[in-house]
Design a protein that fits this description.
12 helices, 12 strands, alpha+beta, binds L-homoserine, 2 domains, 12-stranded mixed beta sheet, 32% helix, binds adenosine-5'-triphosphate, 22% strand
Length: 365
């Protein structure tokens, strides 16, 4: 059996829209999680290939799912994001289907469409899956190229693939490459992958289309996530953003995003500076309509709360990310009080920390 494990992630950290990504893992798993075998904040695939019997499954791939949102994940290999992406990798290498007979058991511990990088993790898991079952021996840097053809904002996939706190950028692609129909863009989900029925070999991604850098992270800083019980589709949360920004807003974000990685690497952390450096004018103001209470949280949760360093929307939301050193319960309660005053919802909260190393593969015979 092959196990593929990919962490969750929080993108942007306020001003670093489409740049910063923080791979996250649980500090402690609850008894319920241990009993159910679902690791919190982690996506796991258990993959077996049985050569003894011929597969009757479509594309030789049988999918089963457990964990968060399992009932909503499709079992069709050309539609499920993970296997679609794996098929993309296989077809770039001239293989039309999975090896017969491949079983993929998805154990999902990342809440779907909450701003914790479930689609980024699924894309990374898909590329790693394609690489493993195809035996292509791709490096992580080459796998990043595949991920970036699928999810065009690099923050979540770079964090999920490499782990830790990362910044990343993309090279501008030739429009011919981005327009290719067989690329299973997650932002146009749930459309099935196009161009797959031809049986033709799919063109490999250009080499080196993105770069990343891992920043240092001060271990005493933890990531408190408050996860409201509703979904925000990332594609919709990108549609509410303007196509152009004023010079003033661009400068506002540049000033903060340039300083934030340095501030988060220093011990003891400077709460006043971090709080200011996590402010943003590129996406959060436009996403307030999708996350009732967001503006009040951003205005009220200041470093006067003991232990709190700064607060922002996690990825495209609706999860709220608070960076803090202690006093987690009181900070979570203050955020939940605002969210539940704004609308009648339930929230869960958890304290996470950076997941070093990112996606990994365990091979057991
Ligand atoms: N484990 C998984 N298996 C298959 N598909 C998945 C899996 N996880 C996520 N997806 C797909 O990705 C979709 C969620 O993507 P979306 O970009 O809306 O949210 P997110 O990635 O959780 O949030 P954000 O990008 O803000 O962090 C799901 O509806 C599903 O189609
Ligand atoms: N940078 C992306 C992350 C989505 O997870 C966004 O905010 O739309």
């Amino acid at each position: 059996m092959i196990k593929i494990k990919v962490p969750s992630s929080s993108a942007n950290l306020g001003p670093g829209f489409d740049v910063f990504g923080l791979a996250l893992k649980s500090i402690h798993s609850t008894a319920a999680q241990q009993a159910s075998n679902v690791s919190s904040a982690l996506l796991e695939l258990q993959v077996t290939i049985s050569t003894s019997n011929q597969s009757s499954a479509p594309l030789n791939c049988e999918i089963t799912c457990a964990g968060l949102g399992a009932e909503s994940l499709t079992r069709a290999p050309d539609a499920n994001l993970i296997t679609r992406v794996a098929l993309y990798v296989l077809r770039c290498h001239g293989q039309h289907a999975f090896p017969s007979h491949t079983k993929v058991h998805i154990i999902n511990g990342i809440p779907l469409s909450r701003g914790l990088g479930s689609s980024g993790a699924a894309v990374v898991a898909g590329v790693v899956l394609g690489n493993e079952v195809g035996g292509f021996g791709l490096s992580k840097d080459r796998m990043l190229d595949y991920c970036l053809m699928v999810e065009r904002h690099p923050d979540n996939v770079a964090a999920a693939l490499y782990g830790g706190f990362v910044g990343s950028f993309l090279r501008t692609l030739d429009p011919k490459d981005t327009a290719r129909k067989e690329i299973p863009l997650s932002e146009v989900l749930p459309e099935p992958a196009g161009g797959f029925d031809t049986g033709l070999r799919v063109k490999e991604p250009p080499v080196g289309i993105g770069s990343y850098h891992e920043f240092r992270w001060t271990p005493e800083i933890k990531a408190l996530v408050v996860i409201p019980d509703f979904k925000v589709d990332t594609a919709k949360a990108r549609d509410v953003l303007p196509l152009k920004y004023s010079r003033e807003d661009a400068i506002f974000n540049n000033q903060r995003s340039s300083l934030l990685p340095v501030l988060l690497s220093e011990s003891p952390p400077n709460a006043a500076k971090i709080s200011e450096a996590m402010r943003d004018r590129m996406h959060q103001p436009y996403r307030q309509s999708l996350v009732p209470g967001l503006s009040e949280i951003l205005d009220n949760l200041r470093p006067s709360h003991p232990g709190l360093l700064g607060v922002c929307l996690s990825g495209a939301g609706p999860t709220i990310l608070a960076l803090a050193t202690h006093n987690f319960e009181a900070i979570a309660e203050a955020i939940i009080a605002i969210l539940t005053k704004a609308q009648d919802i339930q929230c869960q909260w958890q304290v996470l920390e950076p997941a070093k190393g990112g996606a990994m593969v365990e091979r057991n015979n």
